[in-house]
Design brief:
By secondary structure, this protein is of the alpha/beta class. The protein contains 5 helices and 5 strands; from the N terminus they run H-E-H-E-E-E-E-H-H-H. The strands form 2 sheets. It has a 3-stranded mixed sheet with strand order 3-5-4. A hairpin with a 6-residue loop joins strand 4 and strand 5.
């Protein structure tokens, strides 16, 4: 009888110790990071887009968006080439409420994309046109660099919805880290 009671006590102590170890490990060990990238981006962070030609109102902020990624401490290098399959188009899309849309085509390593900038919605939504165009294209290029929309983080990200584009219209450290983690 005494040995049965002692055995139960040891089992209870063992169970308590096991639960305590699991709880302690969950508090001490790093948690798995939430997914901040996805597999619909380009195979490599260096790629070309077809040259686009717009008036300076659009051309300047669109070119700045490409440059904004190119100057980051990442392997990103986006160029323009007439032989590129990827395109960036700014035009009106009546009835569509999005500002920008990234659409990948094909599979890696032959992937290419279309980025559409909705000039109608962009023009209606802002008084700081230059920065809003740049923000939207930097954001859409983020998808080409395998970044997801609206990552769950307390850090500033160009991919977050509702970010103040007057302050944040270039890739942020969070975005840079994600690109480096994905492509390095």
């Amino acid at each position: 009888m005494h040995s049965v009671s002692w055995t139960r006590t040891r089992l209870r102590i063992g169970a308590i110790l096991a639960v305590t170890a699991v709880v302690a490990a969950s508090l001490i060990l790093p948690r798995a990071a939430l997914a901040t990238t996805y597999d619909r981006g380009m195979a490599l962070p260096a790629f070309s887009v077809k040259p686009y030609d717009y008036n300076s109102l659009w051309q300047v902020p669109m070119d700045r968006a490409l440059s904004a990624w190119n100057v980051t401490p990442t392997p990103v290098w986006i160029t323009k080439s007439s032989s590129a399959k990827s395109i960036i188009v700014a035009q009106q899309y009546p009835g569509k409420t999005w500002f920008g849309l990234y659409t990948p085509h094909g599979s890696k390593p032959d992937r290419y994309f279309d980025i559409k900038l909705n000039s109608l919605e962009i023009s209606k939504a802002t008084t700081n046109f230059d920065k809003f165009v740049q923000y939207n294209l930097v954001h859409e290029l983020g998808h080409a660099l395998s970044l997801i929309d609206n990552p769950v983080t307390s850090q500033v990200s160009i991919m977050k919805y509702g970010v103040d584009f007057n302050l944040y219209y270039v890739p942020q450290q969070y975005d840079i880290n994600d690109v480096n983690n994905y492509y390095n």
